[in-house]
Amino acid sequence: MRANHSDRRSERTRQALTSALIELMLEEGYQAVTVRQVATRARVGRATFYLHFSDKRELLRRTLAAPSTQLLRLVCEEIAPRDLAPQLKHFHDQRVRNRVFLLEPIRSLWVNFLADLIEANLRRKRGPGLAAAAALPRRLLALQLAESQLALIARWLAEAPEVGELSVAAALIASTRAQIAALAPLAHVDVVGTSAVSA
Fold it and tell me: 1-53 has which CATH code?
């Protein structure tokens, strides 16, 4: 019973730190935010911050985990547009408040975080069309998929927010599948820029 209470308290602290980071990023930008500011806004001490996170980058990665997990599903599962639509609706509803996540430097950090998840999954599983995609270095494929997913979402929110979530979900699914199919037959490209032809 005591451990359960401690777990809930730890989760509340992590959530307070996450909320504080988001608020401060919206006010000042990611680069300007310090651990001291995050801890103060969350009403915890710096030592408490460091009990949960090693630095603000790790805290940011936690903040990006839930939406990244949804985007990872595009690569690793058969997913229908209706399954992805709630996450996209959230992005849409929060597009003004959370635009900072799709701007630099956070966008690059998000691309790399999402690529880490995709790459790890490529090592463990084979989703639709992924077996042949192993001809490319996994990291390159993961970065391409992550960047293109976030690019489509960013362009949608910035330039065509009137398009519905289901349409964007269908486009994300189709473009992810198409990239995997297109990149699958390619062989490794060596350092001088020539490629071997797969047999």
Answer: 1.10.10.60
